[in-house]
Amino acid sequence: MVYLLCVLAAALAVSNAQVFGGLGCPTVTTQKNFNLTRYLGTWYEVYKFKANFENNEKCIQANYQLKPDGHIRVNNTGVSITDSTPSTAIGDIYIPDMTDGSKLKVKFASAAPYGNYWVLSTDYENYTLIYSCTSILGISHFEFGWILARQRTLPDATINKLFAITQGFKIDTSHFMKTDQSNC
Ligand SMILES: *[C@@H]1O[C@H](CO)[C@@H](O)[C@H](O)[C@H]1NC(C)=O
Ligand SMILES: *[C@@H]1O[C@H](CO)[C@@H](O)[C@H](O)[C@H]1NC(C)=O
Ligand SMILES: *[C@@H]1O[C@H](CO)[C@@H](O)[C@H](O)[C@H]1NC(C)=O
């Protein structure tokens, strides 16, 4: 039970958009020769997994900056769709194993455990496809996915390519919901 609570806390630490599923996590491969330096800077959220409740934010972006201790400071910002209130969340990202640099860890609240942030595919200059899955005792799992881009939109061909990569790992792309980046 304690384990389950930790797992759930980790899910909430990562995102409010996790999706629950049956069985364990799918086997995925992540970006080869990941270069963190090239990954830093600003990314706009183009798609993310649906939340269980109404998605209420638009113009979501993330800014990644290297800290002196080698961790990354992430500044996530968005704007409320209903009343235009801006929101900011500051998080911490790090790479636990430098030989597997595309498997990052992230958390937003200082008391929360870290959750997975795996870069499945990025070209650094246009898109990144991020996936996180945590197995719950091998009988269930929760997962989330993000597609971020250097601009507020991506060409359909790029989206199709990233959806195909996701489907190739047997991850259900119907969870992806487009993020409103209009009138930002
Ligand atoms: C990572 O990218 C930076 C910036 O382009 C480059 O200077 C550096 O050599 C790259 N690192 C590796 C290990 O390729
Ligand atoms: C986060 O980013 C936003 C948008 O760039 C900026 O206005 C805000 O000052 C940043 N917040 C922090 C705490 O760095
Ligand atoms: C990013 O997209 C542009 C426009 O399609 C393309 O010219 C460029 O080569 C892409 N960058 C990388 C690193 O693939």
From TrEMBL:
Entry's Gene Ontology cellular component terms: cytoplasm; extracellular region
Domain of life according to the entry: Eukaryota
Subcellular localization(s) per the UniProt record: Secreted
Residues covered by the Lipocalin/cytosolic fatty-acid binding domain: 35-180
BP terms from Gene Ontology: lipid metabolic process; response to reactive oxygen species
Keyword Transmembrane tagged: no
CDD domains per UniProt: lipocalin_apoD-like
Any Pfam family hit: Lipocalin_2
Protein family membership: Belongs to the calycin superfamily. Lipocalin family.
Annotated protein name in UniProt: Apolipoprotein D
Annotated source species: Pinctada imbricata (Atlantic pearl-oyster)
Lineage of source species: Eukaryota, Metazoa, Spiralia, Lophotrochozoa, Mollusca
